[in-house]
């Protein structure tokens, strides 16, 4: 499989015009691939908050970030599927990243609401998830969330769809803006 056919965080984030000085929250950061790519793009004047429900992952993300010279990454143990669960301040972020999280989220509505809560008016959310189960490469076929379903979900919770975002052969991606600006 060519690298370009799979999810490439740097390419995906470049497409959303992430730049120096931005404040970013990475919901369900996992191993931190998007966290670290975002940290490189926002530079030392920007900040990336990596949020995950698994405490053990967060120390790994922080250590990898520091090893790569990324001192602009903070980690937070939180549950992004409940109001205030991210433990991040309201209306404080330019971008929320939600990658490969919807398919496993039990409370998708609350996830969308929490993204809206932490974004300032006009802030954006990047949503990326699996297109299919691909015979076991992705989530179980019953858990796959279509791009259309995700778009409707975020529109119902105060977002306006902006554009599709390149996410490789196995994923879909889109950018939406919080209403109000």
Write the layout of secondary structure elements.
Blueprint: H1 9-15, E1 23-27, H2 33-42, E2 47-52, H3 55-67, E3 73-77, E4 93-99, H4 108-118, E5 119-130, H5 147-156, E6 159-164, E7 171-178
Parallel strand pairs: 1-2, 1-4, 2-3, 4-5
Antiparallel strand pairs: 5-7, 6-7
3D structure, described in words:
The chain has a single domain (3-178), classed as Vaccinia Virus protein VP39 (Rossmann fold, 3-Layer(aba) Sandwich). Helix content is 28%, strand content 27%. The protein contains five helices and seven strands. Helix 1 (9-15) crosses helix 2 (33-42).
Features:
27% strand; globular; 181 residues; alpha/beta; Rossmann fold
Summarize the structure.
The chain is an alpha/beta fold and 181 residues long. It is built from five helices and seven strands, in the order αβαβαββαβαββ.
Domain module count: 1
Element-by-element helix/strand order: HEHEHEEHEHEE
Structural class: alpha/beta
Provide the β-strand percentage band: 25-35%
Shape: globular
The strand line-up of the biggest sheet is: 3-2-1-4-5-7-6
> Which architecture per CATH?
3-Layer(aba) Sandwich
CATH superfamily: Vaccinia Virus protein VP39
Beta-strand segment tally: 7
CATH class: Alpha Beta
Radius of gyration: 15 Å
**Poorly predicted ranges (pLDDT <50, ≥5 residues)?**
none
What is the fold named in CATH at topology level? Rossmann fold
The biggest beta sheet reads: 7 strands, mixed
